Amino acid sequence: MPDPLDDHDQLAEALNFAAGAAQHYLGDIDQARILCPGFEKTIDGWSDAMPETGDGTLAALRELATRGASAATRSSGPRFFHFVMGGGTPAALGADWLTSTYDQVAFAWASSPLAARLEQVALDWLRQLFELPREFGGVFTSGATMANFVALAAARNWWAERCGVDVEERGLRELPEPLIVSSGYLHPSAVQAIGMLGFGRGSIRRLTNDPVGRIDLGAVERALDLAAPARSIVIANAGEVNAGDFDPIAELADLAERYDAWLHVDGAFGLFARLVPEARELAEGVERAHSVIADAHKWLNVPYDCGFAFVREVERLPRALNVGAPYLPSAVDPHPSFGFIAPESSRRARAFSVWATLRAYGRDGHRAMVRRHLALAQHLARRIDATPELERLAEVRLNIVCFRVHPEGWPDEQLDALNREVGEALLADGRVFVGTTTYAGKVALRPAIVNWRTREEDVDLLVDVLRELVAARVG
Ligand SMILES: Cc1ncc(COP(=O)(O)O)c(C=O)c1O
Q1: Three-state SS at 275
Q2: Which residues line ligand 1 (CB under 6 A)?
Q3: Spans of all domains in the chain
Q4: How many CB atoms sit inside 10 A of residue 131's CB?
Q5: Atom 7 (ligand 1): residue with closest C-alpha?
Q6: Is the pTM of this model over 0.70?
Q7: 144 alpha carbon – ligand 1 mean position (Å)
Q8: For a substitution probing ligand 1, which of 146, 189, 282, 298 has the most ligand atoms within 8 Å of its CB?
Q9: What is the per-residue pLDDT across 68-125, written as a single tens digit (0 to 9) for each?
Q10: Which of 155, 166, 256, 403 has CB 3.0 to 4.6 Å from 263, enough for a Cys bridge?
């Protein structure tokens, strides 16, 4: 098959084939093992030489649909509790297919008015969903890591401007060291963003005096008091990954106001607490931040990849990120042109899936999903509490349940090894997927419930499989 043009008329067949393969894959995802037995063999065997002459469209798709599907991680299924990963709602997945089909470049109005307009609409809907003030301007990114980068680039612009330096032109060399404070809950992606912005990862001060990482507000206040005004960035964490806990955002907002600091909130999944009245209090104060970010590919359940950043002084973003060229549209274009305030130029039209899932299910549907997940997390906590060989390690404030295996009489010094072993056995078994972490010095399991498909029976299966695996080791 020498040339794609020769396959021009195969397009309809290719798309029909892909639709059938997708339905087949998703048809049993509610029950399928996360990784099919033998997946390593498939992956190791995938070492064909670069073809000089191709096999044609359908042959390529067939191979992906058979070999690929047999080795794919069913992370979009209901029993994947590892990391914090959502799935794709039917509306979001359908829209994602159309995103590839329309193949809009969401750089600027000039490249796609449709993508530009839907990004504007979808971001405004998200702003309303989270009840953020009107003055917040947003942009889609590849995920929370890049959203943290965008928001903190705006913070850097603010800090440098207040120091009288054009940081985008001059770099950091004429600037004093900033004060960057957070709690022990700080996610590595924020550290990564601080590093990429040239501040130096080592310049972050995690002010905590407890083994879990909770913030030491007194220490934050003392540090801010010692720093000159407009020299500090405070990063608050709405939802940390081990137990789903929150920093006290409203109190950090008070301190940021009192000491003229930039308050940034990483709410990659925790921002969704604002959807449900019973959890909203956890994320109270976010509306007072200078910037806030979240992921859509987590709790909004749109396919990868999609995150977003909201910045109050959104006019800082083109200054922080845009570099023009004569062949590109002007940054003062009156139309929305999100490529000027994003770290990428050519961009996927991520707005389509976000728009579609909000159009399809609305605030009520997404609220119902978050509420169901919170109830499932409480259900799991109760099941753990009722299981003698399991020990819960933290209060369940949101959607993550942190616990460990702790059989009666098992020596304390061997508990970490046992939990690591059970964690590995759980992944090898594949009926449910849960990762391990270290919480207050203890190796622990930390299932996160964020997938739209997850039901009570999936959560129950986690406890049943664990009991089986523990019984095989402990007797
Ligand atoms: C609190 C928090 N921030 C940032 C991230 C990074 O998100 P992403 O992988 O979408 O870049 C995560 C991912 O789990 C997270 O939980």
Answers
A1: helix
A2: 83-84, 143-145, 187, 189, 239, 241, 266, 268-269, 295, 307
A3: 94-358
A4: 12
A5: 144
A6: yes
A7: 5
A8: 189
A9: 999 999 999 999 999 999 999 999 999 999 999 999 999 999 999 999 999 999 999 9
A10: 256
